[in-house]
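Technical annex, item 7. During the second reporting period the consortium partners agreed on a shared format for inverse folding records so that results from different sites could be compared directly. Each record opens with the tokenized structure and is followed by the designed sequence. A conforming record, contributed by the partner at site C, is shown below for reference.
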């Protein structure tokens, strides 16, 4: 895997399309509730958060994640001492190569570098595959922080304590 780098403006459309495709094929977008437009808006995310992209050997985007520190416009649930990541997506053609896990570890490294002690995220309660991955990576469900964001749309909040020695 090439290391994650900040997305370049000329990649905004391709990275947005990657996120929409990954969420759609992963069964997370069940109909157009307007969230697809949010996922596609890489430029908007980059204006309020740090959007990272992983490239394949040909230079195309294969994975992405958005880092949203506490207090930033894209943070949904991050509190003091927490770094939130959002919209982690892996191109379905590149699935199974460990890119998702590697991006989570990248997020943890970024959080430690910032002095944060927790990594936090929201995941829709119907996304069983993502929930299993995050739990495998040490995340714990925090039901007291869950959010109902629309009719039938519940976001689970998961957190992971970060050790300084990792």
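Designed sequence (site C submission):
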């Amino acid at each position: 895997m090439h290391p994650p780098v900040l997305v370049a403006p000329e990649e905004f459309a391709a990275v947005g399309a990657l996120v929409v495709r990954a969420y759609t094929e992963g069964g997370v977008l069940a109909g157009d509730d307007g969230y697809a437009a949010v996922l596609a808006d890489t430029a908007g995310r980059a204006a309020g958060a740090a959007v990272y992209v992983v490239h394949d050997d040909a230079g195309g985007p294969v994975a992405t994640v958005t880092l949203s520190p506490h207090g930033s416009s894209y943070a949904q649930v991050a509190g003091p001492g927490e770094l939130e990541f959002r919209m982690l997506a892996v191109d379905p053609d590149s699935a199974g190569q460990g890119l998702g896990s590697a991006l989570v570890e990248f997020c943890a490294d970024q959080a430690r570098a910032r002095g944060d002690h927790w990594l936090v995220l929201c995941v829709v309660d119907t996304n069983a595959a993502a929930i299993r991955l995050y739990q495998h990576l040490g995340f714990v469900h925090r039901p007291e922080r869950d959010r109902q964001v629309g009719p039938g749309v519940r976001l689970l909040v998961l957190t992971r304590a970060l050790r300084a020695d990792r």
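Residues 20 and 39 are 6 Å apart (CA to CA). Helices lie at 12-25, 35-40, 42-48, 99-114, 128-136. All partners now use this format for quarterly exchanges.
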